[in-house]
Design a protein that fits this description.
alpha/beta, 16 helices, 9% strand, globular, glycoprotein, EC 3.1.3.62
Length: 446
Amino acid sequence: MKFSVIILLLLIFNYAKCESDKCFYYDDHPFPFFASKTAYNYVSAKQNYTQPNCKTLQLWMLSRHGTRHPGRDTIHKISNLNEYKNNLTNNSSLCKEDFEAIKTWVFNLTEKDEYKLNSQGINDLSSLGLRLQSLYEDIFNQPYNPMTYSVLSSNKERSRDSAFYFLKSAFNVNVTDIPLINSDDKKLNISKFENKHDNEELKKFRCSIHVQEVVVSVSKILGLDRNLTFNIIKAMYDSCRFERSINLNSHPAWCAVFSQKDLEVLEYDEDLKYYYLNGYGNSYNERLGCPIVKDLMNNFKNKSQTQLGPKGVFYFGHSSNVFSAIVRLGFARDTIPLLSSNFNNMRDRKWKSSYLSPFASNLMAVLYECHGVKKVTFFVNEVPMTVEKYGCTLCPWELIENMFDPIISNPSCTFDENSSAFKISRTMNLLFLTYILNIFYYFYYS
């Protein structure tokens, strides 16, 4: 009898445990990858990489702003989720804790909060400044001044604030007059040149079975008798990922409606967006990174040849800046393009915006002198990158210079719509299209 009772209790315990395992509330390691809204801590280097036998000559850094609040439109869409919170019924299959979390969910942001750097964003850049100061003593061994340290920021408040907190922690100084880009400076001011045509692959993916399964799954777990629209599900996703990014240990209410598979699909949806907007999905995007990569190469060339120039070069911008520089340098390039049809085959893709441009993402290059030889290491989010052509992470500067000089000096390495290279490229594309149509016409009608 006692044995039977013990067995029954064990079965009840295991059943209760299995039920609690379905609760997001009890998930000790929730899925952390939310594309460009990923928290920096989830993907940045987990160890410090230094070259103890080398002297650091120059540190060049391009940083995205730290964690921010959503934009106005997203704030409005998240606010509208109150309708679904209030209509939640017992038909929902959410566990009790997740059900209550949604029922008691409160969203306090308003239009005045749009795009502002938040407390986690301040911590992102402050922590980065302290780490770099500790790692590169050769660079941060002088008081801050604009001649020794070159700083430039986007004119957006979140980027200016990011620069301020970075400099404050790295140099223990309040720099209130952060230099801002002007309209003619194409190193950071590239948004007007982005290729913003319709993303056909993204459109097709949103009609795919993968996205439809997310729609059905989320609608079902909420206990609804009809499917939600993708826009409503996207608002739930945004609420989930913005809250996770500002509070790393949180269990945001709306995250509970998504399975890990759902979140992987939504991450791929975001990756498709950036792949064609800023990435390898359009060869034109490689031009967007030309001015910033030229700046990197020219700074290193000047320092290696003359020992002149700033000790540190620090730029503060946006995800598009980081993406464009990564693409121009050739990192995270997949051999197979991201398409609406190959989600399952691209799970191990290199192009993951969660890893490439989370909040506070950065691309750094460090110029060293190692036993009289100049060498370079590139970092993405403090992780050293391999230059595939040479298979090195600490690469001879001469090889890097020879690799990129022909690229950045080529007239096609531009995206200025008024430049002859841009006009020629556009004309050639039109001529090629006309040529193809003429061939088609000839074979079809002859």
